[in-house]
Amino acid sequence: MIAKFCSSPASCNTYVLSAMGEALIIDFGADGASAISFCARHDLKIGAVLLTHAHFDHIIGLSSIYGTDIPVYIDAEDEPQLGDGRLNGSIDLLGEPVLIDEGKIRLCFAAETMKIGNFEIKTIKTPFHTKGSVCYLVEGENALFTGDTLFNLGIGRADLPHALPRKAEESLRKIKALDGGLSFYSGHGSGGKLSSQFLFNPYLKAL
Question: Fewer beta carbons below 10 Å: N end or C end of the chain?
Fold first, then answer.
């Protein structure tokens, strides 16, 4: 089962993927505490938080798990953004910094393949929106969490500070090479089947 929670700022999606009494939380926006409450209500053991990247809207709720033993996975390239309001975009867009105290979370770096509880996860590096942007393919769940790499009929911005626009095509080709039968879940807006994006998303269609 996949539950979605969405709230301001920037209408970032936070997802809970659950199976057999275990859960993963993907991204941790302003409504991340609701994801924690959802897991508690459904008696789900949280195996990890997986961050697709470290822009402020995807990390702003992390303070709600300060002091817990829940591991928080991120690509090493985006780790510096956690404690820097200019790098994570919060100063420019909110007028004040969103700063995550790394000493209060159990920070881990995402590996290419990970086994967390019953979940087997493949981390796909897709830098361009940020240097450390990744997608998470959860094997056996037919689920691809794309963060701001891929949207329904669009992609994430590559014109922001510290973006890598020259990496966009290479990163999107990794998505294009995946099974079209996968369901994708994006960082903003709706998701759907990858096959529909291969046909109608202009950025993938052009590859």
Answer: N
Q: Which of 84, 102, 103, 85 is nearest to 94 (CA)?
A: 85
Residue 199's domain comprises 2-205
Contacts with 95 (C-beta within 8 Å, 6 or more apart), sequence order: none
Which ranges in 89-167 belong to alpha helices (H)? 90-94
pLDDT in tens, 94-122: 999 999 999 999 999 999 999 999 999 99
How many domains does the structure of the chain reveal?
A: 1
Segment 24-53 shows an average pLDDT of 97
Cα separation of 33 and 53, whole Å?
A: 19
Which CATH number belongs to the domain containing residue 134 in this structure? 3.60.15.10
SS (H, E, C) 1-55: CEEEEEECCCCEEEEEEEECCEEEEECCCCCHHHHHHHHHHCCCEEEEEECCCCC
Stated pTM of the model? 0.97
Angle at the Cα of 19 (from 17 to 25), degrees rounded to 5? 25
